[in-house]
Design brief:
- By secondary structure, this protein is of the alpha/beta class.
- Helices cover about 25% and strands about 25% of the residues.
- The chain has a 7-stranded mixed β-sheet with strand order 5-2-1-6-7-8-9.
- The longest helix is centred in the middle third of the chain and has 24 residues.
- It is elongated and about 65 Å long.
- It starts with a strand and ends with a helix.
Length: about 300
């Protein structure tokens, strides 16, 4: 019997795999509904949407330390808690409820990139490898002993969206392997080397702003890391454009950073600290995503 805790699409993939397996998902815990969009209407999480479709009981505590929530959680008599991108740190009192404790499906190769945004940070930091770690949870933030790790290569063309999808493919496989070890009582937990830990704090919108005095590699990593959400952006000719795709040109420009050339056939060219960038795809303010060349042709 499993209580599953998670919130976004990455967690929904793991929940669906569990629900369709021989395991019994007795309840789901997810974040409370939050206002979203221009109308600020309450939006339910991907995990809650799936749970409602299949009549799985749903708990949405504002704080997991709430005594009423802990009582409700205890009453499900779960053997184990499975956690994936839940969004709150579980106190030891909660971790001690099930017989086999709680395991976490984390989207990095721990101890690297502990925290809330390991997928975006892996790309932003220029990592070439990441993966999935299944760990036995303790009261720290992603500090528990590791049960298994599954690596994934990050290609230069991978955006956060593409990397997310690759990790979603292997996360359920890694989760089932860990659950099998637990059921058969043959786990071999490996302590993390805390001296090698790096961190992946929640993404802030101002991190998505591009300045053209940055080096080109950093700019391209920023574009990749914030695709599809929230979208990297830069001021070009007085307007903030979201930039979805750009490539580095091999020529060393003579002009300083921020020099803009517009080309109706090939798009927008901007000099950076060390090269020239060809911007291929943009979204103008209030507009739709389009080829940069199409945007240039529409300018007066």
């Amino acid at each position: 019997n499993i209580v599953f805790m998670g919130t976004p699409e990455f967690a929904r993939v793991c929940l669906q795999a569990l629900f369709e397996s021989e395991h019994n998902v007795v309840a789901v815990v997810t974040q409370p509904d939050r206002p979203a969009g221009r109308g600020k209407k309450p939006k339910i999480s991907d995990v809650k949407a799936y749970a409602q479709d299949y009549a799985i009981p749903v708990l949405q505590p504002e704080k997991v330390s709430d005594p009423d929530f802990i009582t409700a959680l205890t009453n499900f008599n779960a053997h184990i808690f499975v956690v994936a991108a839940f969004g709150q740190i579980l106190p030891q009192r909660v971790l001690d409820i099930p017989k086999f404790g709680a395991i976490n499906v984390h989207a990095s190769l721990l101890p690297r990139l502990r925290g809330a945004a390991p997928i975006q940070r892996a790309i932003l930091d220029g990592e070439t490898t990441t993966g999935i770690t299944i760990m036995q949870m303790d009261a720290g933030m992603d500090t528990g002993d590791m049960l298994l790790r599954r690596p994934v290569d990050i290609y230069p063309t991978d955006t956060a969206g593409k990397l997310h999808d690759k990790l979603c493919q292997i996360a359920p496989v890694a989760l089932f392997a860990a659950l099998k070890q637990i059921v058969e009582r043959r786990t071999k937990p490996t302590p993390q080397d805390h001296s090698k830990a790096t961190y992946a704090p929640m993404i802030k919108k101002d991190e998505a702003r591009i300045y053209f005095n940055m080096d080109t590699r950093q700019i391209i990593n920023t574009i990749r890391a914030f695709n599809p959400r929230p979208g990297a952006y830069a001021e070009i000719l007085g307007k903030d454009l979201k930039i979805w795709h750009a490539i580095r040109l091999p020529l060393k420009p003579e002009e300083g950073p921020g020099h803009v050339r517009l080309c109706p056939k090939f798009g927008i060219f901007v000099t950076t600290a060390d090269a020239e960038l060809q911007i291929m795809e943009v979204t103008p303010p209030g507009g739709k995503k389009m080829a940069a060349a199409e945007y240039v042709r529409g300018l007066k």
